[in-house]
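Section 5: illustrative case.
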């Protein structure tokens, strides 16, 4: 990826990303579980904050977690090692030029990465081609060719949960 990463890689940014991931664990992963033997691509794993949770929740699935930053991959490996995980392989890779065979993954997990890209639709297309035909997705988080465009008047109110807006489930009212 030849583009400059807007957020940067300084320690404060790493800390912010870890805090963000930790705060949202229950909201994002309360129902995330991959079947025994599933092969899951985690696209844009960063420092591994989501990786540890995913791998712990699905110990019988195998994960390939990629990130463009060698420093982030090194930190993700340290986190996984500290957690005693054996079901994760880390690779430095560019989301726009992934080194995998087409239709080789059962699932693709994308979280907190699209906001960092200038071409998010192209990145989604890149990872979508790696899904096996008919590959199920946990909950209703399937990758689509393009994001749904919702007219402003029909968008959920700020009171609806982020989980509901992301998953397509009816928003809870408070």
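Designed sequence:
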């Amino acid at each position: 990826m030849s583009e400059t990463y807007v957020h940067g890689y300084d320690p404060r940014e790493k800390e912010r990303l870890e805090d963000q991931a930790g705060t949202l664990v229950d909201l994002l992963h309360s129902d995330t579980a991959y079947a025994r033997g599933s092969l899951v691509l985690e696209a844009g794993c960063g420092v591994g904050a989501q990786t540890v949770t995913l791998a712990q929740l699905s110990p019988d699935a195998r994960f390939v977690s990629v990130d463009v930053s060698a420093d982030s991959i090194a930190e993700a490996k340290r986190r996984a090692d500290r957690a005693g995980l054996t079901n994760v392989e880390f690779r430095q890779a560019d989301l726009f030029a992934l080194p995998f065979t087409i239709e080789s993954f059962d699932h693709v997990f994308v979280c907190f990465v699209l906001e960092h890209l200038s071409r998010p639709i192209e990145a989604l297309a890149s990872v979508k081609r790696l899904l096996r035909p008919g590959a199920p997705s946990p909950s209703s988080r399937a990758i689509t060719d393009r994001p749904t465009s919702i007219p402003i008047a029909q968008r959920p109110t700020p009171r609806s949960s982020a989980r509901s807006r992301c998953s397509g489930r009816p928003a809870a009212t408070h």
